[in-house]
Design goal:
mainly alpha, Helix Hairpins, 6 helices, about 0% strand, elongated
Length: about 200
């Protein structure tokens, strides 16, 4: 699509509104899709240590690799998006949710390895809940790490939480800002499906 066509779209309120609604609907659907993916990942966790301890660890390792690939993909999408702020908000939510899912799988594995690792045995839901409380630093105290291994993993998450909050937000917001700066003076923007931003 040419720059003139994009400018025409931006000058047509009805078409711009439709693009915005489509972008919002797409964001909601992607968020739901990732939520279902997380539920599926956590459903792979065995409820008892029956020799399938490798399942949560394998999913955590694969999840970490996918997380890195997904992060890079989301940053590229922000730079090409018609609404970079919306895409940046989506990226932050998705990346934070997947980050917590990876640690939830690790916490479950630790709990299955040693039932005394935490003040209560963790299942899929409680492990995600615990990972979220660590990220939020609310410190309810209902679930706490007890053993050295459990405390070590929790400390790693605490350290990476600082990276997630400080670096990820900065990187995503910078990508959104650069995408806005690429917009033409007439307000036109790269098409959402375009491979590269237009040059002027």
């Amino acid at each position: 699509m040419s720059d003139q066509s994009l400018a025409a779209l931006d000058s047509a309120p009805g078409l711009s509104r439709r693009y915005l609604i489509a972008a919002i609907v797409g964001t909601v659907l992607r968020l739901l899709g990732v939520a279902l993916l997380i539920v599926f990942m956590l459903s792979l966790v065995p409820e008892t240590p029956d020799g399938r301890l490798v399942a949560p660890l394998a999913v955590a390792v694969v999840g970490t690799g996918l997380y890195i690939v997904f992060s890079r993909r989301q940053l590229r999408k922000i730079t090409r998006a018609r609404y970079p702020e919306l895409m940046a908000a989506e990226a932050l939510v998705l990346l934070a949710a997947l980050f917590l899912a990876v640690f939830a799988m690790i916490y479950v594995a630790v709990s299955l390895l040693d039932r005394r690792a935490f003040t209560e045995e963790l299942d899929a839901f409680s492990s995600y809940y615990f990972a979220l409380t660590v990220l939020a630093t609310v410190g309810f105290g209902d679930i706490t790490p007890v053993t050295t291994l459990a405390r070590s993993v929790t400390m790693v998450q605490m350290a990476l939480d600082l990276v997630l909050i400080a670096v990820l937000i900065r990187v995503v917001s910078t990508a959104a800002r650069k995408a806005k700066e690429r917009r033409a003076p007439d307000g036109s923007a790269p098409h959402p499906d375009a491979g590269t931003p237009p040059t002027h």
